[in-house]
Amino acid sequence: MLLARNLFEDIRAERLTPRDVLELCAVAIAEQEADVHAFAALDLDRARTAAEAPGLARTPLAGLPVGIKDVIDTADLPTAYGTEAFAGNQPRTDAAVVRQVKRAGGIIPGKTVTTELAFLRPSITKNPRRLTHTPGGSSAGSAAAVAAGMLPLALGTQTGGSVLRPASFCGVTGYKPTFRLIPTVGMKVFSWHLDTIGLFGARVADVAYGAAAITGRDLDLADADIGPARFAVVRTARAHLADAASHAALDSAIAALAKAGADVREIALPEEIEAADAIHPVIQDYEGWHALADEYDNGLLSPLLRGHLEAAAAITPDAYDEARRTAKRARQRLGDLFADCDALLTFAAPGEAPEGFATTGSAMFNRLWTLMGTPCVSVPGLLGPSGLPVGVQVVGRFGRDRRTLAAAAFLERALAAR
């Protein structure tokens, strides 16, 4: 994989140029894209021209290539939202985050594959760790492109588990920031109270650097003193749905943290927080029914998504409002848990990537934290019994993204040293 933070340093030190890094990506794309299918649109010639711009090496992203998930509008590349109904769609303007990437000096070689409108129907993308398995979804192409070394950084989106789960399945780092830390203006909305833009990179340091460069926030960990952190292990009421590989990964992470000197203890989630897990679909589906009203009414959806929204139409405004009140109570209660810990540690996915392409896997271990709006990081470094990656998830306090990333980096180092 390409290490974004290291490549940035190499460009700044003039050991590499932005064009050199782009050509590394181009070689990997030429070797693997025909099998992986990570890109919905690709324009390397345009990217090569952009990489020659004067002064690029001195920008925050130093000309590093960044993939953009194909539910995020781009003015110079088509945006099809993962559906044939929008094939050839060319937005007139960039989404806010795309403009942030460009202003920071990032180069955009292409759009990465998404599931249909970032929801249920699996995409054509394959897992580069094993081509017979799903890469997860909905940010399939972004996770796969980073895992295959075709990009050092890529943007994804998460409404349920669409950053954390693909990151776990593909063995990369996925970072879902605090809700609204990255603007969603210009993204195809599914659920306006849940949709969150995140990043994929090889390591925690890479997504932290990328997020810092794109947003201008103090998130980069390059000079940080990553000391022992306090972790509270949360298996949740759904622990019985995690398979042996996921339980083994979490247990290995706990052991590695303890060996590295971290304070690790297990806790049970309060009832108010556990209750919120069941109402995530109420909020997501009610908003999806309204956000995709035009596509539904004009017959632009697959039977799978159309059927899902038809069921969602039965959710009443009263049920939606009550679900939002439940979520608010849970968020207030969640803050209390961080009085005695820096981060929570839990499952990132139910297990290894499923074989075949009938499903992108389950978001059961991600959706609660998406609803809470908290920063989350899927940390790689562990393998399941079949040799496929299994990540573990670090969950932080709302708005404390740097602390969450630091805790994830500590875990990453502990796993590497075990």
TrEMBL record:
Protein name, UniProt field: Malonamidase E2
SUPFAM superfamilies tied to this protein: Amidase signature (AS) enzymes
Organism encoding this protein: Azorhizobium caulinodans (strain ATCC 43989 / DSM 5975 / JCM 20966 / LMG 6465 / NBRC 14845 / NCIMB 13405 / ORS 571)
The family classification in the record reads: Belongs to the amidase family.
Q: Which GO terms describe its molecular function?
A: catalytic activity
The domain of life for this entry's organism is Bacteria
What Pfam families does UniProt report for this protein, alphabetically? Amidase (PF01425)
User: Which positions fall inside the Amidase domain?
Assistant: 21-405
According to the record, the signal peptide region is none
